[in-house]
Amino acid sequence: MSQLFSKNSPFLARWTAFKHDRRAAWIAFVVVGALLAALPFLVELGLGRSWVRVLNFTLLYIMLALGLNIVVGYAGLLDLGYVAFYAVGAYCYALLASPHFGLHLPFWIILPIGALVAGLFGILLGTPTLRLRGDYLAIVTLGFGEIIRIFLNNLNTPVNITNGPQGINLIDPFHIGGISLNQAHTIAGITLPSTYNIYYLFLLLTLLIIFISMRLQNSRIGRAWVAIREDEVAAEAMGINTRNIKLLAFAMGASFGGVSGGLFAGLQGFVSPESFNLLESIMILCMIVLGGMGHIPGVILGAVLLTVLPEALRYMGDLQRYLFGSVIVDPADLRLLLFGLALIIMMIFRPAGLWPSPQRSRELSDVET
Amino acid sequence: MLLEAKNLVVTYGGVHAVKGIDFNIAQGELVCLIGANGAGKTTTLKALCGLVPVAQGSIHYHQQIITHRPTHEIVQRGMVLVPEGRGIFSRLSVAENLAMGAYTRHDTATIRHETDHIYSLFPRLHERRQQKAGTLSGGEQQMLALGRAMLAKPKLLLLDEPSMGLAPLMVSKIFEIIQHIAQQGMTILLVEQNAKLALEISHRGYVMESGLITLHDTARNLSTNPQVRHAYLGE
Fold first, then answer.
1. A367 CB near a chain B CB, below 8 Å?
2. Do B70 and A241 touch (CB under 8 A)?
3. Chain A residue with the nearest C-alpha to that of B152
């Protein structure tokens, strides 16, 4: 070792050259890591326990948005029925870990199964829609989302599979071996309530999905997706197997949705078809559009904003009562109102999203010139 | 013969775009397919590389029937199309476009070497390699489309209207480059409306009219053929 670090060693010289960048990167890594680990504590301290739950939902939506981002952002295939895959994942979890069938598999087995099944459903949707583009594709995917929801609603007869509109109750919470994440645990003198445990689980999976998204973007497959988005015929003429690459986009996106769905089921302990309606699909799409299509940090920002802001608007009821003595506009209505307004403002001033990828903003800027 | 099409028929719905044509290309030849708008030239090229389905007839390439093979497989076998209107990825950089050309290949070192060769062939592309391809001029885009196709390591290059929408000076420059590529041993099938230029650089030519091949001869004979001179060379 001493030789390795001796003054003249080439290793040391090279190391010094990189040291600055490396050190900065490491510091950033440690700071962000510590911040993410401390986040639930900070949130509870500042806003209260219920906001830690909001935090968990935020992570869930980040995963969902990143999944849809693969289909819409990378491959340019407009999918308005993405919530179907979320539903498939959620019901996978519900059926395999609840008294409904008497199955109680652990979540780390169910999540991959959910991802796989959702991926297969992605291929199921992708196969008949390969020749469709733009609006036509959007209509079919929208229909697909509804078909899944209606199936879940009606698959209680003749054989009761989904328990129909009542949904499935008493879903097992997350547990690893004998340790349930639904109980408070004390580690090294710090007590972690259940929402905290779930936060760390979700954080881990979110980081994994971010990592996969990043790797995909800079891969051969990622470039093929961009090429298809740009010019499908030319992409085909370059030797890209457009059929498989498009199906892969559907399957990858769907499997992320399946994982998120499983997490949703475990978190809620209850699933029913009404959680998976069209509005949910639209919300996820809006997260991507608002944040910046195809750009991972933008998509994350969009998911955070659209999960946190509606929660914050709940306080508007109290504010109105305080100011006017009564609630003039119902906070729920206000939410949609402001939401529509925000989208219109976005379209006018930042058509590429709040935090677009450098490439996308180039794309949109040349429209103006 | 490197490529042989026998009784090729292509239909769009009920419309017969190509009505049973025969043609062939030998190794190292530059063959042109000329004809007016709507004669079926582009459809023929698309059928060759599997972009539109063949209704009847067969395509033989390297003594193998490739009639119903998928496009990506045909590209991998070395038949590469430069599509009409160039088909560059306008929002990707020049360098990224070239990289897409080598999509089917995995020999990174050779690809880098050949990319440098393309840059030496088209210095303008090298100057603008970081620029997004949509900002290039029409001629530069055509160069990029050619360079990108070359990186797929073609054995047979299909060029669809390389002169389309280009200034006359640029057209002659592009044709010079095509001739240069052909002289280095590339087999090329050139589809053109600009019959005069196409016949100047080709060895042989086929004349296509409303889905049928009506004439076939050496390029020299075609350019002196009174019928061709009347219909396509404006005399």
1. no
2. yes
3. A238
Distance in angstroms (rounded) separating the CA atoms of residues A344 and A334: 15
Residue A31 in this model has a pLDDT that exceeds 50: yes
Which residues in chain B are closer than 8 Å to A239, comparing Cβ atoms?
Answer: 71-72, 75-76, 80, 103-104, 152
Domain count, chain B: 1
Residue B214 CA to residue B20 CA, distance in Å, equals 11
> Is B27 within the bounds of a domain?
no
Give me the domain span that covers residue B111: 94-152
Q: Cα separation of A3 and A5, whole Å?
A: 5
For an interface test with B, the pick among A238, A357, A363, A369 (most B C-beta atoms closer than 10 Å) comes out as: A238
* B67 assigned to some structural domain: no
pTM to 2 decimals?
A: 0.84
Residue window 241-300, chain A: list those with CB within 8 Å of chain B: 241-243
Q: What is the pLDDT of residues B47-70, one digit of tens each?
A: 999 999 999 999 999 989 999 999
ipTM of the complex: 0.86
Q: Residue B127: inside a domain, yes or no?
A: yes
Q: What are phi and psi of A318, to 5 degrees?
A: -65, -40
- What is the domain partition of chain A in residue ranges? 50-278
Q: Has residue A368 got a pLDDT over 80?
A: no
Look at residue B121 and tell me if it is in a domain.
Answer: yes
Q: B63 vs A184, which has greater pLDDT?
A: B63
Cβ contacts of A338 within 8 Å, gap of 6 or more: A309, A313
Report residue A184 CA to chain centroid gap: 26
Q: Is pLDDT of B231 > 70?
A: yes
**Whether the predicted pLDDT of A362 surpasses 70:** no
Average pLDDT, chain A: 86
Residues in chain B: 235
Contact present, B18 and B54 (Cβ < 8 Å)? no
Burial class (CB in 10 A: 0-12, 13-18, 19+), A63: buried
More confident residue, B228 or A15: B228
